[in-house]
Design a protein that fits this description.
Helix content is about 55%, strand content about 5%. The protein has about 180 residues and is mostly helical. Helix 1 runs antiparallel to helix 5 and helix 3 packs antiparallel against helix 6. The chain starts with a helix and ends in a 17-residue tail after the last helix.
Length: about 180
């Protein structure tokens, strides 16, 4: 097995595991507490989770456009409102946000499982959010995809602690090894 592909499969499983933990920890707060402006880049826990859903859909659409058909990356799942930006609130309702996160995480696991072994070594071509054409190794975009999630989940962990909720251990190595 290609070590690159194996790494992304591991990260996809971790991604789903830690998202489930952080959403469960967030359930200890009221809707108003989750949506309270806490001075973060996306203001609130809810806003930060919404940003991650937006970014995941954006990146998954880019990956799906690289010449390989991935059954889990359906147009319906990856649909974004016209002109949606990084801070667009896609889901005002907490349950709808949770449901979309769950659907995305399941799709991400299936996507990397179906990824051709050489996919990380291919060249990725896309236009960024400003319309600038980009080209770089796929593994760089894949690494960014998972790192971006980690970055903002770290912010959510801090916001939860500030709200009096301990999200528990979030380290990748704390997750039971995949079987």
């Amino acid at each position: 097995m290609n070590p690159f592909a194996a790494n992304y499969r591991f990260l996809a499983v971790y991604n789903r595991w830690i998202n489930e933990r952080l959403y469960a920890a967030s359930e200890k707060l009221t809707d108003a507490q989750r949506k309270a402006d806490r001075g973060a880049f996306f203001r609130s826990i809810h806003g930060t989770f919404n940003h991650l859903v937006w970014a995941d859909k954006l990146w998954l659409k880019r990956f799906a456009a690289q010449g390989v058909e991935f059954a889990s990356l359906t147009p319906e799942l990856l649909a974004l409102p016209a002109h949606a930006k990084h801070a667009t609130l896609l889901h005002e309702d907490w349950q709808a946000l949770k449901d979309m996160r769950h659907r995305l995480d399941d799709a991400i696991v299936l996507w990397v499982d179906a990824m051709p072994e050489d996919f990380p070594e291919r060249t990725m071509r896309y236009a960024n959010t400003q319309g600038i054409e980009r080209e770089h190794p796929m593994w760089m975009a894949l690494t960014h995809f998972f790192n971006h999630e980690t970055h903002h989940r770290g912010q959510v962990s801090t916001l939860l602690m500030q709200a009096g909720v301990d999200p528990g251990v979030t380290d990748l190595l704390a997750m039971a090894p995949p079987k």
